[in-house]
Amino acid sequence: IFKPPLSNRDCLLTRGLVDLYMTQLPTLHGRTVALFDIGKSRAGEFLDHLETRLRARGVTTARFAKPTNARPATAAILGDIAAGADAVVEALAD
User: Does the predicted model carry a pTM greater than 0.85?
Assistant: First the structure.
Protein backbone atom coordinates (compact mmCIF):
# COMPACT_ATOMS: atom_id res chain seq x y z
CA ILE A 1 0.00 0.00 0.00
CA PHE A 2 1.60 3.22 -1.11
CA LYS A 3 0.80 6.90 -0.86
CA PRO A 4 2.49 9.83 -2.53
CA PRO A 5 4.08 12.01 0.19
CA LEU A 6 3.40 15.18 -1.77
CA SER A 7 0.17 17.04 -2.46
CA ASN A 8 -1.21 17.09 -6.00
CA ARG A 9 0.23 20.60 -6.35
CA ASP A 10 3.69 19.15 -5.83
CA CYS A 11 3.26 16.46 -8.51
CA LEU A 12 5.33 16.93 -11.61
CA LEU A 13 3.15 16.27 -14.65
CA THR A 14 5.40 15.63 -17.62
CA ARG A 15 4.18 14.17 -20.92
CA GLY A 16 1.23 12.49 -19.21
CA LEU A 17 3.31 10.87 -16.46
CA VAL A 18 3.11 11.63 -12.77
CA ASP A 19 6.50 11.72 -11.05
CA LEU A 20 5.90 10.78 -7.43
CA TYR A 21 8.09 9.37 -4.70
CA MET A 22 6.12 6.71 -2.88
CA THR A 23 5.93 5.85 0.80
CA GLN A 24 4.16 2.91 2.37
CA LEU A 25 0.82 3.40 4.14
CA PRO A 26 0.55 1.40 7.37
CA THR A 27 -3.21 0.84 6.87
CA LEU A 28 -6.09 1.58 4.53
CA HIS A 29 -8.39 2.43 7.45
CA GLY A 30 -9.77 5.92 6.89
CA ARG A 31 -8.15 6.15 3.45
CA THR A 32 -9.52 6.42 -0.07
CA VAL A 33 -8.30 3.98 -2.71
CA ALA A 34 -8.62 5.06 -6.35
CA LEU A 35 -9.53 2.25 -8.73
CA PHE A 36 -8.16 3.29 -12.11
CA ASP A 37 -9.45 1.57 -15.26
CA ILE A 38 -7.11 2.18 -18.20
CA GLY A 39 -9.58 0.68 -20.67
CA LYS A 40 -8.21 -2.84 -21.07
CA SER A 41 -10.49 -5.81 -21.57
CA ARG A 42 -12.14 -7.03 -18.32
CA ALA A 43 -10.46 -4.32 -16.23
CA GLY A 44 -13.87 -3.15 -15.03
CA GLU A 45 -14.76 -6.67 -13.93
CA PHE A 46 -11.52 -6.96 -11.95
CA LEU A 47 -12.01 -3.54 -10.32
CA ASP A 48 -15.66 -4.34 -9.49
CA HIS A 49 -14.53 -7.44 -7.59
CA LEU A 50 -11.72 -5.57 -5.82
CA GLU A 51 -14.06 -2.71 -4.92
CA THR A 52 -16.51 -5.14 -3.33
CA ARG A 53 -13.74 -6.67 -1.22
CA LEU A 54 -12.30 -3.29 -0.17
CA ARG A 55 -15.70 -1.86 0.78
CA ALA A 56 -16.49 -5.01 2.81
CA ARG A 57 -13.44 -4.08 4.89
CA GLY A 58 -14.61 -0.48 5.33
CA VAL A 59 -12.25 1.07 2.77
CA THR A 60 -13.57 4.01 0.75
CA THR A 61 -13.08 3.69 -3.01
CA ALA A 62 -13.28 6.12 -5.91
CA ARG A 63 -13.47 5.03 -9.57
CA PHE A 64 -11.54 6.66 -12.40
CA ALA A 65 -11.18 5.67 -16.05
CA LYS A 66 -9.30 6.73 -19.14
CA PRO A 67 -11.55 7.41 -22.13
CA THR A 68 -9.53 4.93 -24.22
CA ASN A 69 -6.59 2.60 -23.66
CA ALA A 70 -4.92 3.98 -26.80
CA ARG A 71 -3.97 7.30 -25.20
CA PRO A 72 -2.27 8.40 -21.98
CA ALA A 73 -4.42 9.55 -19.09
CA THR A 74 -5.16 13.24 -19.21
CA ALA A 75 -3.65 15.67 -16.74
CA ALA A 76 -7.18 16.28 -15.42
CA ILE A 77 -7.72 12.59 -14.59
CA LEU A 78 -4.30 12.30 -12.96
CA GLY A 79 -4.97 15.49 -10.99
CA ASP A 80 -8.34 14.17 -9.79
CA ILE A 81 -6.71 10.94 -8.63
CA ALA A 82 -3.91 12.80 -6.84
CA ALA A 83 -6.39 15.15 -5.17
CA GLY A 84 -8.87 12.52 -4.05
CA ALA A 85 -6.98 9.34 -3.24
CA ASP A 86 -4.46 8.06 -0.76
CA ALA A 87 -3.57 4.98 -2.84
CA VAL A 88 -4.21 3.78 -6.38
CA VAL A 89 -4.89 0.40 -7.96
CA GLU A 90 -4.43 0.51 -11.72
CA ALA A 91 -5.91 -2.30 -13.82
CA LEU A 92 -3.17 -2.80 -16.42
CA ALA A 93 -3.68 -6.02 -18.36
CA ASP A 94 -6.37 -8.03 -20.11
Answer: no
